[in-house]
């Protein structure tokens, strides 16, 4: 049995995020593109974690005497320390793969740690649309071998990006897709946050992103758990917090810059949202 994260558990995504943030994955330095020769075969016995993504060819194998592998483009192995097996391929259609070894580090002392299976993806995932993962993986391999300054930082960031996409793909393959922001809703958010002082209307914003007013209103409710109007106020107050702490503008100037003709309305909304008036928020900061 391939014990792994249960995406049906509402807390699973929080635990995954905590793993990737608090126990940072680090490339080991072994990351490559492999074009396997006709006589190639592999008997892995893994000392660390290893990502192994097929982007061409056909192969087969068995992992840990329990998991049968049928390999082709989009086949992904997420091998864990201690895993073993045998993998071969069709010499007429040899495998081409991207690979990267990595470890998780304990932030307290920098030692290698092995997370429990309840926060790890499955060992074998067949990805239906591997284009995004393949592109991110190629950037990771390049970053690992890049000798330029800050390449270690970039490689670690690329690895987190790859792992995040692996989790999303794994969840989707199991019929539990991760919630993602509707692209038209994202466009509407961009319009609002780019100009919080503007008198955005639901009808005008919906038309700008190619939706009906009902569709956009539903997206705000279902994905952001708020209304269009409340999001407008939230975006203004969020900008107000930044202006209070990062500029010398007076509260009246901030209110006017955010489209409030009545600074007292601004102060009431700010206090209702954050529990203190704008002047106290600035003093606290």
Explain what this protein looks like in three dimensions.
With 285 residues, the chain is α+β, with helices and mostly antiparallel strands. It folds into two domains: 12-173, Jelly Rolls (Sandwich); 183-284, Arc Repressor Mutant, subunit A. It has ten helices and nine strands. The chain has helices at residues 12-22, 131-145, 151-173, 183-194, 202-208, 213-224, 228-246, 251-257, 263-274, 278-284; strands at residues 25-35, 49-56, 59-63, 67-71, 75-79, 85-89, 96-105, 112-113, 124-126. Strands 1, 2, 5, 7, 8 and 9 form a six-stranded antiparallel beta sheet that branches. Strands 4-3-6 form a three-stranded antiparallel beta sheet, with no helix packed on it. Strand 3 and strand 4 (67-71) form a beta hairpin. The longest helix has 23 residues, at 151-173. The chain is elongated. The model has no long low-confidence stretch (mean pLDDT 94). GO terms for molecular function: DNA-binding transcription factor activity; sequence-specific DNA binding. It comes from Microlunatus parietis. Keywords: Activator, DNA-binding, Transcription, Transcription regulation.
What's the arrangement of secondary structure elements?
Elements (H helix, E strand, L loop, with lengths): L11 H11 L2 E11 L13 E8 L2 E5 L3 E5 L3 E5 L5 E5 L6 E10 L6 E2 L10 E3 L4 H15 L5 H23 L9 H12 L7 H7 L4 H12 L3 H19 L4 H7 L5 H12 L3 H7 L1
Antiparallel strand pairs: 1-7, 2-5, 2-7, 3-4, 3-6, 5-9, 7-8
Protein name: AraC-like DNA-binding protein
Keywords: Activator, DNA-binding, Transcription, Transcription regulation
GO molecular function, one term: DNA-binding transcription factor activity
């Amino acid at each position: 049995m391939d014990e792994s994260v249960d995406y049906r558990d509402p807390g699973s995504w929080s635990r995954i995020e905590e793993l990737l943030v608090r126990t940072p994955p680090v490339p080991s330095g072994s990351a490559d593109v492999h074009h396997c020769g006709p006589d190639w075969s592999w008997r892995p016995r893994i000392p660390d974690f290893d990502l192994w993504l097929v982007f061409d060819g056909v192969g087969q194998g068995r992992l840990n005497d329990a998991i049968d592998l049928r390999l082709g483009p989009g086949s992904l192995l997420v091998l864990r320390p201690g895993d073993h097996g045998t993998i071969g391929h069709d010499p007429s259609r040899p495998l081409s793969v991207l690979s990267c070894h990595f470890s998780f580090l304990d932030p307290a002392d920098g030692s290698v740690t092995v997370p429990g299976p309840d926060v790890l993806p499955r060992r074998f995932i067949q990805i239906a649309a591997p284009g995004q993962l393949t592109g991110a993986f190629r950037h990771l391999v390049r970053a690992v071998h890049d000798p330029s300054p800050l390449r270690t930082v970039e490689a670690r960031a690329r690895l987190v990006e790859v792992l995040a996409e692996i989790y999303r793909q794994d969840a989707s393959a199991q019929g539990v897709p991760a919630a993602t922001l509707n692209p038209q809703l994202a466009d509407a958010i961009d319009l609002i946050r780019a100009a919080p002082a503007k008198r955005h209307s639901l009808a005008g914003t919906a038309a700008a992103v190619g939706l009906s007013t009902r569709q956009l209103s539903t997206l705000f409710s279902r994905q952001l758990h708020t209304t269009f109007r409340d999001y407008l106020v939230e975006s203004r107050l969020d900008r107000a917090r930044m202006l209070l702490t990062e500029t010398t503008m007076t509260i009246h100037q901030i209110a006017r810059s955010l489209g409030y003709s009545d600074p007292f309305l601004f102060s009431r909304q700010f206090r209702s949202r954050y529990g203190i008036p704008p002047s106290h928020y600035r003093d606290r900061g």
